[in-house]
Amino acid sequence: MTGDLHRQPMPPPQRYAAIGAVAAGVLGGIAGLIIGLHVHAATAWAATLELGIPAALIGLVVGLLVGLGVSAGRRRKSRQVG
C-alpha cells in the first residue's frame, strides 16, 4: 500500500485554530456534562452540546488569532535576518 507519508504540515493559523477548537470543545463538553448531570441527568447530553459547541468556536477563533500572530512573527523575523 502506497500512502502519502510525506504530507505537508498545516500552516500555523490552521494548525492553531484546529488545536484551539478541539481543546476548547473538549473542555467545554466536559464542563457541560458535569453541569448537566448536576442539574438534570436526563438532559445532560444537551448541556454537553450547549457548552461544547460555543467553546469550540471560541477556541477556533482564539487559535486562529494566535496562529496569525505566530505567522506574522516568523515573517517579520525572516525579513530581519535576510
Overall shape: elongated
Average of pLDDT? 90
Given helix and strand content, the structural type is mainly alpha
Global Rg: 18 Å
Please give the number of β-strands: 0
* Relative strand content: under 5%
Number of domains: 1
Largest sheet: none
Query: How many distinct helices?
Result: 2
Distance between the termini: 42 Å
Are there runs of 5+ residues with pLDDT below 50, and where?
Answer: none
Helical percent range? over 70%
Order of helices and strands: HH
3D structure, described in words:
This protein has 2 helices and no strands. The protein is mainly α and 82 residues long. The protein has one domain (12-72). Helix 1 packs antiparallel against helix 2 (44-81). The termini are far apart. The model has no long low-confidence stretch (mean pLDDT 90).
Give descriptors for this structure.
2 helices, mainly alpha, 82 residues, elongated, 0% strand
Blueprint of the fold:
Elements: H1 12-39, H2 44-81
Helix pairs in contact: 1-2
Can I get a quick summary?
The protein is mostly helical and 82 residues long.
